[in-house]
Recover the amino acids of this structure.
């Protein structure tokens, strides 16, 4: 394996942990103090690899009508937070969300380091691009109404530093909206270490509802709301890349039923989280959605 470095828990700073499993040479551990799950040790060149490859290099060349409709609906849901008219996306990828936000009249900002994603972003109009890691980016303090971070936080060496930067650039009463995989999900428990979202060279911090709530609370957010969605039977190895069959075929006939029901629980494979920066300013009339 390439050169690695030992890390401490990004959530509480502890060096005490227990090994949960090893996948493709990467140890996945749980902090003995706060329960955060993370990869330890990490690849020393983790940030360089995120610039050159990783999921930032992925994405559709063209969105379907249903995907565009979903993004437009999400943008519409943010209207109650439009005070200064600025929205920022951390890990903007190819810029599909920001394109819809710009069409709705928002001043759009992007934080992105992946080289492939940047080629697409630079071809779009009206997006101000910050080419710094999420842990290091600088944006005007208290200037943003909304920050979006979609399937990004699990890639970061220090989610805490990234969330601190986000809180700093949000105005009081501003909204953070993020999505990430849910290590506490039924999908992960069924699929075990071969669950498709466990990739130690890419997904290095794995949150659960309790740990993401603690992080956001510690960094100055309130009104934290979490919903989960989807039940996924996919299993995968990455080195070499290989799809694996599901372990329990008995789940298949009821998968769609579970998928519908699981959104009423905290066991869906994806967490959708909203949080409001604490402060004296009132939030929008309809609050976070």
């Amino acid at each position: 394996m390439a050169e690695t470095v030992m890390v401490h828990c990004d959530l509480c700073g502890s060096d005490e942990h227990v090994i949960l499993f090893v996948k493709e040479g990467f140890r996945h551990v749980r902090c003995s103090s706060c329960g955060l799950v993370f990869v330890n040790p990490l690849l020393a060149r983790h940030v360089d690899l995120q610039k050159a490859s990783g999921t930032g290099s992925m994405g559709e060349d063209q969105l379907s009508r249903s995907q565009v409709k979903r993004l437009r609906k999400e943008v519409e849901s943010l209207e109650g937070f439009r005070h200064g008219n600025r929205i920022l996306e951390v890990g903007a990828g190819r810029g599909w969300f920001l394109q819809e936000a710009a069409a709705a009249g928002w001043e759009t900002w992007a934080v992105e380091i992946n080289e492939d994603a940047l080629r697409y972003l630079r071809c779009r109009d009206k997006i101000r691009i910050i080419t710094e890691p999420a842990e290091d980016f600088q944006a005007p303090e208290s200037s943003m109404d909304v920050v979006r971070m979609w399937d990004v936080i699990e890639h970061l060496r220090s989610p805490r530093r990234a969330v601190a930067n986000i809180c700093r650039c949000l105005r009081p009463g501003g909204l953070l909206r993020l999505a990430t995989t849910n290590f506490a999900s039924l999908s992960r428990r069924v699929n075990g270490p071969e669950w498709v979202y466990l990739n130690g060279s890419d997904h290095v911090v794995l949150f659960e509802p309790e740990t993401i709530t603690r992080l956001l609370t510690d960094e100055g957010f309130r009104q934290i709301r979490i919903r989960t969605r989807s039940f996924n039977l996919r299993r995968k190895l990455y080195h070499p890349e290989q799809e694996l069959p599901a372990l329990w075929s008995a789940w298949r006939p009821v998968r769609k039923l579970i998928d519908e029901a699981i959104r009423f629980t905290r066991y869906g494979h994806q967490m959708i989280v909203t949080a409001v920066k604490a402060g004296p300013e009132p939030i929008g009339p309809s609050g976070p959605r």
Remarks:
- Residues 282-289 have pLDDT under 50 and may be disordered.
- The longest helix spans residues 65-76.
- The longest strand covers residues 170-181.
